[in-house]
Amino acid sequence: MNSRTEKRIALISVHGDPAIEIGKEEAGGQNVYVRHVGEALGELGWQVDMFTRRVNLEQETIVQHTSNCRTIRLEAGSPEFVPRDNLFTKLPEFVDNLLEFQKNNHITYRLIHTNYWLSSWVGMQLKKIQGCSQVHTYHSLGAVKYNTVKTVPLIASKRLQIEKQILETAERIVATSPQEQQHMRSLVSSKGDIDIIPCGTDIQRFGCIDRTAARAKLRIDPETKVILYVGRFDPRKGIETLVRAVAQSKLHGSYNLQLIIGGGSRPGHSDGDERDRIEKIVAELGMTEFTSFPGRLSQDILPTYYAAADVCVVPSHYEPFGLVAIEAMASGTPVVASDVGGLQFTVVPGETGLLAPPQNVDGFATAIDRIIINPQWRDKLGEAARKRVVTKFSWDGVAQQLSQLYTELLQPTVKEAVLLSGVS
Ligand code: UDP
Hints:
- By secondary structure, this protein is an alpha/beta fold.
- The chain folds into two domains: 8-200 and 394-421, 3-Layer(aba) Sandwich (Rossmann fold); 211-392, Glycogen Phosphorylase B (Rossmann fold).
- It is 42% helix and 16% strand.
- The two termini are 22 Å apart.
- The mean pLDDT is 93.
- Bound molecules: uridine-5'-diphosphate (UDP).
- Uridine-5'-diphosphate (UDP) is lined by residues 22-23, 28-30, 32, 230-232, 262-263, 296-297, 299, 302, 321-324, 327.
């Protein structure tokens, strides 16, 4: 096999370490995506190297996930946590170290798949130097994000400029939902090649336990109505909307409600402020007794939480895809989500859950109550939800589609084919 057709790929995820614990600080969907895509591609015979930035000295330089999939941590600035908005100046060192790694290991990546705008810049530099083909997944679009935040960071104009450049120059952009593709076209550029390949989830892991067993394991009474949130503590995740919606539910008095807000790191980390703020609102609304904050939930225990819930709520102000929604759905639990972005693609209202306008407390309260009050309908929604994920959003299916795309991009051009065959 020559280097042109070799099944080798570098996945680049500067700030989203695929080997790190998920659910705290900035570790979320991107980390999960890169890791699962990498491992599933490895199963399909790809040699997968996933590059990320080292954030502390104790971290191993190389983490071997499977025989042909590994995470490689490169130095870029001093090894400490740096919020993503402050990472841009560290990137030239990241590029140098990635080139150095290739040289030392006699590897040249003909194909790279970059994740988030910071990595797209790294990829564009490698492309200039090495002529590789570049696939890019945004995970979040500045043009959308800056419409939903009050203060725009200093780096905003740089990010917007790079996000336009990558759309117009990458060999292929992967949008994870039709809604994301639409935003690219309407807010970023009409140029560039976009394929839609969704995010996936582990359909064996999520769905491996039923509600009764899950409740027994978590010691939750079978009659209690459980409302679940899973995700990072970030104001844009809309946890406040959920808390206020549960406070005004019409079901208090008729049912025992339990609100579980999972995710987040220990106090003192960058997401601690939002957690303190939410805990304060919970206390002010008199909900402390029936609200719990179990903290970061490992991927091993998460299926039990999803299965135990009557409804999983994803109240984000915006979500390009939203892995939590499909994890809950795969676990047979209906989802109430904001009517935005990728959630409009994954959640089919009235079939697998309900959608409510973002930040609309009344809308969320009504939707949550509708599902909880009708257990037969809830079960029907849950069954349809699982079915939808199994047919559309398994990691294996996603990796197959990516593998096909990569293979296509690695095909030699007509000119190269002629050169390779030695015909002049
Ligand atoms: N997650 C986790 N433990 C937690 C909280 C979140 O493993 O305590 C995982 C969750 O299962 C999902 C990911 O973090 O796979 C969050 O992805 P999503 O796309 O929903 O949101 P993002 O973090 O990308 O904004």
